Amino acid sequence: MVVAIPGKEGENRVMSTTHEHYVEQLLTRFDADPQRAAIVSGGVTHTAGEIADTVRRAAVAIRRQGISRGDVVCILTEPNTAATLILRWAANLVGATAAHVRGMNAVIPDDELRLELQRAVVTDLGARMLAVDASHEQRARDLLTGDADRPVLAMLGPGGPDTVDLTAECDGEAVPRVDLTDDDLAVITQTSGSSGLPKGVCWTFGVKNDMVATASGRSGRTTILITAPLTHSSGFSADDALITGGTVVLHLGFDAAEVLRTVAERRVGRLIIGTPQVYALATHPDRPATDLSSLTELIYTGSPAAPQRLREAREIFGPVLIQVYGTTETGVLSMLPPDDHDDPARCATVGRPVNPAALSIRHPETGAALPDGEVGEICAVPRWPTAGYWHEPKLTAALVRDGWVRTGDVGHLDADGYLHLTGRIADMMKVKGLRVHPEAVEKVLSQAPGVSQAVVCGVEDTNRVEHIYAAVVPVPGATVDLGELRRLVAEALSENHVPSLIEVRQELPVTGPGKPDRVRLRADACRALARPGSRR
Asked: What is the number of other CB atoms lying within 10 angstroms of the CB of residue 21?
């Protein structure tokens, strides 16, 4: 479908997509009510009119550098500021692909990639421009040092002589004509690969345009508080709130006291946090005296919740709890609405599929559909699927089988249609929002001085929060320094890969011909984690 889109100065831009460009949809909404509070960042309120003007100026400045359809603009900013959204919108407005390169953690905003990894990502993406905020100007120069064919360095504001000011006057020029298709890439986010290195998850303009068009049809504006990084799915949540005329309040991470204060002061209606953070809010000493009457949606995700803790949270917060389950590649797949939180049995599930016909439990090896009650891999045909992984054709090909996107999660559907999660294929762990492959940690530990064998697995504590557990067998006569092991893992991979508990054992339980018995190890780990002071 070809639609003509009116520009700011009345010109028409042709776009070969099934929906109007999502940034144009947002700008139209901003123009309709320029004085409303759109984004609150660092305590500063940015009006819709101010945001729209900055986006248009930045888009013109980007286009003046020859950036257009198909080019990659890498974005390096403090993740939860207005700048992160503005730069994505501006790059997308001229048809470029916006690639977030600051970090790969979808939960913790200040978890930044090491400089050398950021440099490798920018190079692999073939970036034409590196767009930054003022706080990242020097880091950008360090990142681009020695690059013969370096990208244009642009900043949201005045910088050094080697930077392009994306806020400079645009002399009334309109955004240049652009011609996109649904399959053109709009956004690339970094997520963790099995080796601990980042991989780029790609999203098309067709998906983004449809997401925002769908959200625009919903009634009722709200104020949403976001604590997770805008560089991941929270950025899409911000778009959803803004297109309905709402306000986005940004925090640089989760702090229970600050969240409670902000909900009361800003009259927050929607809060999206991780499951453990629900517990933190419920038990915080400031909570009883905090006015939470504005809160109508407390959405939690990231890991299954402990049914008893959910019942307690339901009594504290009222009928506002909503659990959502999904993956980076599929989006939301199932939901447990407020009323189901009154049923302890249903609290042990992740709710019913949003679209039952688009979710299937299938045999992990053959791909055959399995009947209700049988455990298999959770697969889906999502409405808004990822376009795959950047420069990872094998991973992209393996993601979809017979038209079904594979989540890597294992579970089953019960007779009432509720989805139960029971584990993950290949023992992949999800810790602090990151997928961690046990073999990556095992490799580091097994190569450490004095270590003969090492096995790593994920284990949930009583609150159903997953931790990394490691069992190591020392070389005969050697003494293993646990502090040194943690240091080696942190240096080789990241702090998020460091086991919460490392136990020294004389031998490992095995099943079959020397294969570690991970079931037995998980049982041992559960008991060990329950001991007082067992974790770091």
From this structure: 23
Q: Residue 238: inside a domain, yes or no?
A: no
Contact by Cβ (8 Å): 50, 161: no
Could you tell me if residue 248 is inside a domain?
A: no
Q: Which of 70-84, 195-209, 437-451 has the highest mean pLDDT?
A: 70-84
**Is the C-alpha dihedral spanning 190, 101, 18, 387 positive or negative?**
negative
Domain that holds residue 177: 22-210
Residues 486, 399 share a domain = no
By CB atoms closer than 10 A (0-12, 13-18, 19+), residue 271 is: buried
- As a residue count, the chain comes to 536
| φ, ψ dihedrals at 321, nearest 5° | -75, 130
Is 390 a domain residue? yes
Q: Residue 102's domain is classified under what CATH number?
A: 3.40.50.980
- Mean pLDDT lowest for which of 208-222, 311-325, 441-455? 441-455
Tell me, rounded to whole angstroms, the distance of Cα 407 from its chain centroid: 15
* Dist. CA 508–CA 28, nearest whole Å: 63
Q: Is the dihedral of CA 148, 163, 235, 498 positive or negative?
A: positive
According to the model, what pLDDT value does residue 461 have? Answer: 78
> 99 pairs with which residues across the strands?
74, 188
- When pLDDT is cut at 50, 70 and 90, the band that residue 12 belongs to is very low
CB 472, CB 502: distance < 8 Å: yes
Question: Which positions ≥6 away from 459 have C-beta within 8 Å?
Answer: 466, 467, 469, 522, 525, 526, 529
Share of the chain above pLDDT 90, in %: 61
Structural domains of the chain, count: 3
DSSP letter, residue 174: P
Residue 535 included in any domain:
no
What tokens does 236 get?
């899409």
| DSSP per-residue string spanning 264-328 | HHHT--EEEEEHHHHHHHHH-TTGGGS--TT--EEEEESSPPPHHHHHHHHHHH-TTEEEEEEET
Judge if 198 and 57 occupy the same domain: yes
Of 177, 210, 243, the position where a domain reaches its end is 210
Contacts of 468 (CB under 8 A, 6+ apart): 429, 431, 436, 438, 441, 456, 457, 458, 497, 498, 499, 500, 501
How many Å apart are CA 306 and CA 325, to the nearest integer?
Answer: 15
Domain limit, last residue, from 424, 455, 481: 424
DSSP 177-241: P---BTTSEEEEEEEE-TTSSEEEEEEEHHHHHHHHHHHHTS----EEEE-S-TTTHHHHHHHHH
**In angstroms, what CA-CA distances link 127 with 73, 98, 119, 122, 164?**
6, 10, 11, 6, 15
Terminal Cα distance for the chain, rounded: 57
